[in-house]
Design a protein that fits this description.
The protein is an alpha/beta fold and about 300 residues long. It has two domains: about 180 residues, 3-Layer(aba) Sandwich (Rossmann fold); about 70 residues, no CATH class. The chain is built from ten helices and twelve strands. Strands 6-7-8-3-9-10-12-11 form an eight-stranded mixed beta sheet, with helices on both faces. A four-stranded antiparallel beta sheet has the order 2-1-4-5, with helices on one face.
Length: about 300
């Protein structure tokens, strides 16, 4: 399905663009068909930048992105199979138009020959697929609907296309707890139909709940990735351990892992690489500046 190889994004910054900022640095990972992969990291780690490059919204500096072996080429045919849903659902709607206008735009662009009656039937099915009642949401302006309803309408819009891959960028961060679980359960249901999802989030608990695989990003670089249960049950990189320790637990005292900087695989590591510590579990060296070893 989705394959990202050595993806890099460099911005020119400073007066007259005299300096550069590497927002994403040689990132490689895959999203298999019918799986959810969580891309986890703090704000500014490069998560959303990666999502935007996959969607063709911003150009990559170097590297490759392919979907079913076909390189990303932003355009109508690409967006027929790859769609994105973003953090703020209200920003995706024009407040002067009714919310269901997003469905008409899909029809005008991709299915102009479909009759109005057939299209209305398709829209009703898509809305019901995202657990909404068409009578309660159609014909309403965005301000008349909740954030959760608007977010699910955007997913319904994507389902009207021949969708293979969904980039879900912080789609639950502005929703209340009950609605958040509804949206996550919807994504879990959609993956059973073969849909692949890249779930971009800073919330570890939600990533753990939803994803088969986890990619941990720090300062534009992958520090750990693998099967979700292996990453969460046995974190190897100091940054991953620090992230996990920052999640409050009611039954245990808060532990501070900020001072832990030993790398379990320093002697086996190599500068700039990911190494398979166990089957299905990869980790980067925590001491990249000093590490001179070779990968095992």
């Amino acid at each position: 399905m989705l394959k990202v190889e050595n993806l890099t994004k460099v911005y020119k910054v400073g007066t007259f663009g005299g300096r550069t900022l590497k927002a994403v640095d040689a990132v490689s990972f895959e999203v298999p068909q019918g799986e959810v992969v969580s891309l986890i990291g703090e704000s500014g780690s490069g998560k959303s930048t990666i999502g935007k490059m996959i969607l063709g919204l911003i150009p990559m500096t170097s590297g490759t992105i392919t979907v079913d072996g076909v390189p990303v080429r932003a355009g109508r045919e690409y967006y027929r199979t790859v769609q994105g849903v973003f953090q703020d659902p209200f920003s995706c709607y024009n407040p002067v138009f009714k919310a269901d206008r997003v469905f008409q735009l899909i029809k005008d662009s991709y299915y102009p020959s479909v009759s109005d009656k057939e299209w209305a039937e398709r829209v009703h099915v898509a809305i019901e697929d995202v657990r909404l009642n068409p009578r309660e949401v159609l014909g309403k302006f965005p301000h008349q609907l909740s954030g959760g309803q608007l977010q699910r309408l955007l997913i319904a819009r994507a389902l009207l296309l021949d969708l293979k891959l969904l980039i879900a960028d912080e789609i639950t961060s502005m929703l209340d707890a009950s609605t958040r679980i509804d949206v996550l359960n919807l994504l879990a249901e959609l993956k059973t139909r073969g849909l692949s999802v890249l779930y971009v989030t800073h919330d570890l608990s939600l990533g753990h709940y939803l994803a088969e695989r986890t990619v941990v990003l720090r300062s534009g670089t992958i520090v750990e990735m693998g099967l979700t249960h292996k990453v969460f049950d046995g974190p190897l990189h100091p940054y991953t351990r620090q992230l996990l320790s920052s999640v409050p637990r009611l039954h245990a005292p808060w532990e501070d892992a900020a001072a832990v900087e030993t790398c379990l695989y320093h002697e086996r590591g190599g500068k700039g690489g990911l190494y398979e510590a166990e089957p299905g579990h990869f980790v980067a060296c925590a001491q990249l500046d000093d590490c001179q070893g070779e990968p095992s």
